[in-house]
Amino acid sequence: MRLAGIEKMGYYPTPETVYELIAAWLTPAPVEQPGRLLDPCAGKGEAAAFLGKALNCQTWGAELSPVRAEEAAQVMDVVHATAWQSCRLTNESVTVLFLNPPYDVETLDGQKRLELEFLRSTTFKLVKGGVLIYVVPQSLLGMTDVARMLAGHYENLLVFRFPDGEYERFKQVVVFAQRKQYRTPTNEAIQSVRRLAVQDLAPLAMPGTGAPRYPVLPAPEKGANNRPIRFQRLDWLPEEMVEAARQNGVHTTQDWTDLVQPGDGMVEMNPAMPLKKGHVAMLMASDMMGTLRLTDEEGRPMLVKGRVTKVVEKIEERDEDKGETVVRYKDRFVTTVGVLKAKAVQVISDVDELTEFMKAHGDKIAAHILNAYRPRYELVPLSQELAVVDRLGKQRKPLPGQAEPGLLPAQKHAAIALARAIREHRTASLQGEMGLGKTTVAAAVIDLLDAYPAIVICPPHLVPKWIREVREVIPGVHARELRRIGRNGDDEGDVNDVRRFLDDYDAGKLGHKAIAVVASTSAKFGSGWRPVVIPR
Predict the structure, then answer these.
(1) What pLDDT, on the 0 to 100 scale, is given for residue 506?
(2) Would you say domain 3-234 falls under CATH 3.90.1150.10?
(3) What is the pLDDT of residue 236?
(4) Cis ω on the peptide bond leading into residue 453 (within 30° of 0)?
């Protein structure tokens, strides 16, 4: 750029009379659907602000001079105090492109004309049908690259020279055009634009009656390829980053407040039954217990917080049969515990260190957690609950160690706890190893709740097991598998197990205690399902 241009930072504002006339050649956007105008060389923002108001547009822009950018920010909607090249804007996000770039050569980048580079970098920000207002020296239109851009990407070109008194200094013109779907321009189309560089053009004036006007389209909600529209600055000075962090930094968030002023942070949860030591360890590791306030060996305050992170490990193994190395990726979960003491911060991730820490502080942690997670059922059953579970499971053989058949004490407690949880929350979860008797416990829960008729959905291979076990556990129960599901026609040949089950239940053929067992595969492919209960 020439020294005079560098001194002004490329600032050659559009005369007020010119942008007032420019506005007359466009039809404003609908009142309820404003457009969006981009000025990548905003200056003090006078031209963009005037056009935005006249054409009912939001005004976005960039300005290299911090002083002028501050002035522009007072009259425009969004202004970034930086060069346009340091901004990122979603393609096809603006409906008016007001482009009055510096008139000069960028010597640091291969002698490229700035007017051309600005046209190239901003064209794709304009929606199809959007309006280009290109203010440049008339001679620039003679450049083949400029002519090719205008002929290939735009249509409905109108070119006027500046009015008398303004044209003589820089020989500027105003190019109006609408962006179109790109087509490779013919040589004739390129030459027709180039000829405008030497033609005697009409001066820009108010449009006459019947003169074409360019409609301003409403601003889109999404950009190209349905992407969210973002207008961001990519470069920041250190002092600007400090100021941005001061106003919007992480320390202004609730997460930061919770970190430096930790509350209990515990997840509200009341387990069905008292927690065991294994549960306590899992709660601490999973961070569900929040930040614990304890005391260290010397009686001073200590904060403890745990978490689990997933680590992906790369494993390379030699396949001797194929003679090549096979790469596998395996997920591994790492437990870490952070301990904040008066003298130091300790992060524990080693198993041995974690074991020693739990030996020293495990009782305090367990007491804290057990006090916070009060169980719904503390192993003290009501007499009516005992009356139900004591008569279950009498149809099976006694297990080793049992004097007579029936549910084991642990199974009775689990069933009572689950039934209480379901009464309060309408749902409960039972997790246990193979052989625990989960099916037996679930059958007991159904009887405790007197939830008849009941439906059980399970994998296909477990349907016979469910039917067998509920018959062994619940006295007088009728269990039936439902296979044909979802047929609702009136044809006599239409066999519908669901309808037949309900009809038989209503007729009293199944007794009060009836359970339908459905394979998950059958349930998945059935049609015409309706909810049993609609909560209000």
Answers:
(1) 94
(2) no
(3) 73
(4) yes
Q: 486 with 527: CB under 8 angstroms?
A: yes
Q: Which residue bears the tokens 């973002």?
A: 230
Copy the structure tokens of residue 306. 């745990």
Over range 7-12, report the average pLDDT: 53
Task: Judge whether residue 282 has pLDDT over 60.
Answer: yes
Q: Per the structure block, which two tokens stand in for 510?
A: 């199944």
- pTM for the model stands at 0.48
Q: Is the pLDDT of residue 5 over 60?
A: no
Beta bridge partners of 155: 178
List of long-range contacts for 113-116, beta carbons under 8 Å, 24+ apart? 113/140, 113/143, 113/146, 114/1, 114/10, 115/140, 115/146, 116/140, 116/143, 116/145, 116/146, 116/149
Given this model, what pLDDT does residue 340 score?
A: 86
Specify the pLDDT at position 8.
45
Alpha-carbon radius of gyration of the chain? 38
Domain boundaries, the chain: 3-234, 277-372, 376-449, 452-536
Beta strand 231-233 pairing with 478-482? unpaired
CA distance 294 to 292: 6
Other CB atoms within 10 A of residue 23 CB: 16
**Exposed e or buried b for every residue in 290-317, given b needs 16+ CB within 10 A?**
bbbeeeeeeeeebebbbeeeeeeeeeee
Q: Would you say 351 and 326 are in contact if contact means Cβ atoms under 8 Å apart? A: no
- Contacts with 137 (C-beta within 8 Å, 6 or more apart), sequence order: 103, 115, 170, 171, 172, 173
Amino acid identity, position 467: I
Average pLDDT, the chain: 85
Token pair in block for residue 372: 């916070």
Task: Work out the percent of the chain whose per-residue pLDDT is above 70.
Answer: 88
